[in-house]
Design a protein that fits this description.
257 residues; alpha/beta; seven-stranded mixed β-sheet; two-stranded antiparallel ribbon
């Protein structure tokens, strides 16, 4: 777009509705009073040291991209093809406007986390951040995101809200049907189900504890490479997932589709 003045940007930011990502659009902050502070810049500052300073044309998929903060951050680091997908038209409109202001070639598409197989391509980096707990069927979406990770050196960046005991309990290979004690331990891997709302948001469905978060990543065929903070995991495909002929979710649903 042509050079936009601060007043034009400020007006357009207002027209696009409430922003969840606080972006700096030529001096105009989109969510300066965010209840999480300078979000998601405060998350990005903890993650960025774990990523290459030069992404050297790497491909990126940002699932649940919102207004595109992470997509823009990776594009600035030298990523090549960057695609952000979301189901909220308002967020996509915000992201496209921000891309114009930033003059960054980032594609944004209206696509559900449950439709990722439609992309028919693999990416060097798949971001699955701030999305898991908003999904009614979160493991299905995560399993589908895993299928978009390039087997050779690809990475999935996962972030979820966690609550509960911080101890990372190791899973047992099996549990006795008649022994309830493991399930009564505070650090047992578990997810809390939110029937109505959490923090005023009715789309907050599931909140795992740290042990459950680690377990669900392993069960999705991922191995943790690094943990930049308590809620972020940098993952690679486990060997069996990289070599699998069929995605985990398709094996689970065999004969039902």
């Amino acid at each position: 777009m042509a050079e936009a003045t601060e007043s034009v940007i400020r007006r357009r930011v207002g027209e696009l509705g409430e922003w969840f990502h606080n972006l700096d659009l030529d001096g105009v902050a989109t969510a300066p009073n965010h209840f999480l502070g300078d979000f998601p810049a405060n998350k990005w500052r903890r993650l960025e040291p774990y990523l290459p300073a030069d992404l050297d044309g790497a491909s990126v998929l940002d699932v649940g991209c919102n207004a595109g903060y992470y997509a823009f951050a990776l594009k600035r680091r030298g990523a090549g093809r960057v695609l952000g997908v979301d189901v909220d038209p308002r967020y996509l409109a915000q992201a496209r406007f921000a891309a114009e202001i930033y003059r960054l070639q980032v594609e944004f598409r209206h696509l559900s986390a449950y439709q990722l197989e439609e992309l028919r391509e693999r990416f060097d980096y798949v971001l699955f951040m701030g999305l898991f707990y908003h999904l009614r069927y979160p493991l299905l979406a995560l399993d589908m995101a895993v299928t978009r990770v390039r087997p050779e050196g690809g990475r999935l960046i996962f972030q979820t809200m966690v609550r509960g005991d911080p101890a990372p309990q190791a899973p047992q290979p099996d549990y006795d049907f008649w022994d309830p004690r493991p399930f009564q331990q505070a650090d047992f891997p578990r997810m809390a189900f939110i029937e109505h709302a959490f923090a005023g948001d009715p789309t907050n469905w599931w909140i795992p504890n740290p042990a459950a978060a680690m377990g669900l990543l392993r069960s999705a065929g991922l191995r943790v490479v690094a943990q930049p903070e308590a809620e972020i995991w940098l993952c690679a495909l486990a060997a069996e997932a990289a070599a699998a002929a069929e995605p985990l979710w398709r094996r689970e649903w065999a004969g039902t589709l």
